[in-house]
Design brief:
Number of strands: 8
Order of helices and strands: EHEHHEEHHEHEHEE
Strand content: 15-25%
Shape: globular
CATH topology: Aminopeptidase
Number of helices: 7
Strand order of the largest sheet: 1-2-3-4-5-6-8-7
Largest sheet: 8 strands, mixed
Radius of gyration: 17 Å
Distance between the termini: 26 Å
Structural class: alpha+beta
CATH class: Alpha Beta
CATH superfamily: Gcn5-related N-acetyltransferase (GNAT)
CATH architecture: 3-Layer(aba) Sandwich
Helix content: 25-40%
């Protein structure tokens, strides 16, 4: 079964759907998996066209598998040449020589893949890490988060977003977050949580590096609800994926 989540847009007459997506399991029961994939495509298309300030002709979100490693680096822009940059290792621990080596090892070996890539008209434009929460020690051991999060072995976490500079503000982040929720649910997650930034509470416009975990507005648009805060500007957001 292909894990590609394709989002064709612009020009196609796609009806607007409710702002809160249909839960994965209910969609599967009603229409079968093939119809669910169509629902994911339409839902992401609507998000991108509603939130985007640019005209998009085709957005596709796919798992970051080993053969896509050479393309992943492009998302990081100038930091692609710096192996000591973050490379989405902020919440992990590893024994590799560099953060780039650590992510490359994950991409080449992880099953299921640890992240998703967004493509616009065939060109890679965005990345997100979405994994079981238990695989991120600096999330599990975070004292402020521990006061909010329940001990759920099936909980997943979306930890970061990277969108190429020229495509920021065009809805790519929301498309990645929507696809991340569906990807987590497809792999048995009970919930998907994240720890974005409430930019409305900041004294100044933040730099992109300050909101690498996403923004509150973005999570709300993707159907997440706030379950608590670790700091006045740091909400914890959750999307329920299964009825427990």
């Amino acid at each position: 079964m292909s894990h590609d989540v394709q989002c064709t847009s612009a020009g196609g007459a796609v009806p607007l759907e409710p702002s809160r997506p249909m839960p994965l399991r209910r969609a599967c029961r009603r229409r079968g998996l093939a119809s669910w994939l169509v629902a994911v495509r339409r839902r992401t298309d609507v998000r991108v066209r509603q939130e985007g300030s640019k005209t998009m002709t085709s957005v596709r979100v796919v798992p970051a598998t080993a053969e896509r490693w050479p393309q992943l680096g492009r998302v990081f822009g100038p930091r692609e040449k710096n192996p000591a940059s973050c490379w989405c290792q902020r919440f992990r621990r590893h024994d590799e020589a560099t953060n780039r080596d650590a992510l490359r090892g994950e991409i080449q070996q992880a099953d299921p893949p640890v992240g998703l890539l967004a493509y616009l008209d065939g060109d890679v434009v965005g990345w997100t890490r979405v994994v079981p929460r238990s695989t991120l020690p600096r999330i599990v051991e975070h004292r402020a988060l521990a006061r909010i999060l329940d001990d759920d072995p099936d909980a997943w976490w979306v930890s970061c977003f990277v969108v190429r500079r020229e495509h920021r503000g065009s809805g790519i982040g929301v498309a990645l977050l929507e696809a991340a929720a569906d990807w987590a649910a497809q792999h048995g997650a009970s919930v998907l949580d994240g720890h974005p930034v409430d930019t409305d509470g900041l004294a100044r416009i933040p730099s992109p590096s300050a909101v690498f975990t996403g923004t509150l507005a973005m999570f709300r648009r993707a159907g997440f609800a706030e379950i608590g805060r670790t700091y006045p500007t740091r909400p914890v957001m959750r999307r329920e994926l299964l009825h427990r």
